[in-house]
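Throughout our pipeline, every protein is held as a single compact record rather than as scattered files. The remainder of this section carries one protein's record, kept here as part of the documentation.

===
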Amino acid sequence: MEAPVTRELAEWTVGLTGSDIPETVRAEGVRTFVNWLGCAVGGSSHETVDRALAAVRPFSGEKRAQIIARDVRLDELHAALVNGISSHVLDYDDTHLKTIIHPAGPVASAILAVAESRNVSGADFLTALVTGVEVECRIGNSVYPDHYDRGWHITGTAGVFGAAAATGRLLGLDARQMTWAYGIAATQSSGFREMFGTMCKSFHPGRAAQNGAMAAFLAAAGFDSSERAIEAPRGFANVMSTKQDYTEILGGLGKTWEAALNSYKPFACGIVIHPTIDGCQQLREKLGDRVRSIRSVALRTHPLVLELTGKRTPSTGLEGKFSVYHAAATALLRGDGSPTAFTDEIVRDGEIIALRDKVTAEADGTVHEDAVHIRVTFEDGSTTDLHVEHAIGSLSRPLSDTEISRKFSRQSEPVLGESPTAALLEAAWALESLDDVSALARLSAASN
């Protein structure tokens, strides 16, 4: 008989109190939320969100939840879906580097929508957020990397558990109901890496948010499921991975915190490209006009870079986020790694394409995931080399609160304007002291 992993995790989830979470972890939870909200505002005007809204609005129930930065309200489940899409569509969101899960998308998108009709305090919201992030990352740890290597998009597959955990806390589920919620979440776990570079990639965290919240609502109504959904022979871990390490789920639970290991992207693309952008931006500063006389750029990277971002000839902005060649060219010519580096127009720019075609990349298993070696050769045959040991945004070089705020403002101001952005940012950093977190959702739409 397998260890009762699902049940034990459920008991911990419902038994946790806010005071059980160390202050450092709660502080990281606030950073996670601020970063998520900025990304959701920044992505709110993307055509992917337009199309999602056009598809789902006719099916919305009672309109009780705000679509971030839009003059639109939907029912809680559809709002969770759309806000999850919005928060991830720019590929600018948070990353749990051990698993490449983007934790906040499924969790925050679910619980902000659910909280709007329930008068949830900021402190309770933060506890639910940290709990959900912890659950999804631990479940992700238990099956990574085999699960990811098989082609599953782990943000979708593990994120549904995080959304169920966090929503279940807001609904006050007991241990048995939470066990059912995990089972209902498990049977909805999905998302394929094949979808990277398409609108479906951001659909994954949105759907995980929606499905996880639905799992909690069903469980609250007495809708049952297997109580061994994670560990059973035909359950989540055994069906979806060749690796099952349940100590990653239960070991040190409540003592060590995966939620404290979250990181925040300085660049709006797949995180494995970040060392290359970091290095190419440094080279641009060093080289000045000499970037116009480059004959070739040779990258030596971690193997995952080419596996995930090896698109040689991207044709859309979304595809460009998965092209290390495009990212290198744009960083060298424009010094850009923000969302403006990954538009359809920039991906199709002739000057960018010309330099992109001069970039080569070699996979090297000795290169760390947050490192890169770059050699630039010029038309006169001279060369310059750069080694990035740890990219900005990694755990070794994390973004500061000030940098997260700057990132938030750069995304939000073009959408909301300067004053509404300042008010929303101030309220987001004050999350734990808010009497009712629904004020944040309303603030995000105040200028529309």
